[in-house]
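Session log. Operator J.P. requested a structure for one protein chain; no other inputs attached. Running the standard single-chain path with token output.
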Amino acid sequence: MKSARHVAVCGPHEATPEEQALAERLGELLAVSGLTVVCGGRGGVMAAVCRGAKRRGGQTIGILPGTDPSDANEWVDHPICTGLGEARNVVVVASGRVVIAVGGGLGTLSEIALALKLGRPVIALRSWPLDASLLSRAGATISEVATPEEAVSQVLAVLSVQPTGGAEL
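Structure written below.
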């Protein structure tokens, strides 16, 4: 796996049905584009994006807050135990070349801030409303999208890669 094709996906553990549906579709699209999902590895948005990716033959990495790999959701291929608790959020966003935030609670907001601090482009899929013009003056790249299709299109543009051999959706 090339790290240039890793996309971090952040979102709440206590996700709404809409957030889960968006994340699941996002996982499918990332997988057929040949991109690897990196996430927090547990429930909610994290489970949904992994489930979607696995359905389409994709690879998933779960960066876990604890030390037990069995805490990962069933769709995580590679659980990474950190023992860092919420501080593992920095590992999640640092592991992706681009970060997609789906919906969000305070943990998602922290991941957005950490990603921007690390210089990672952030795509907000119905997530926190942030002032993109203000952030761009600070050197941060963030864009808001309404659909998983728009999110993946932006990821591919940012990475300047073409989808690899996946089936069309």
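Operator note: The chain has six helices and seven strands.
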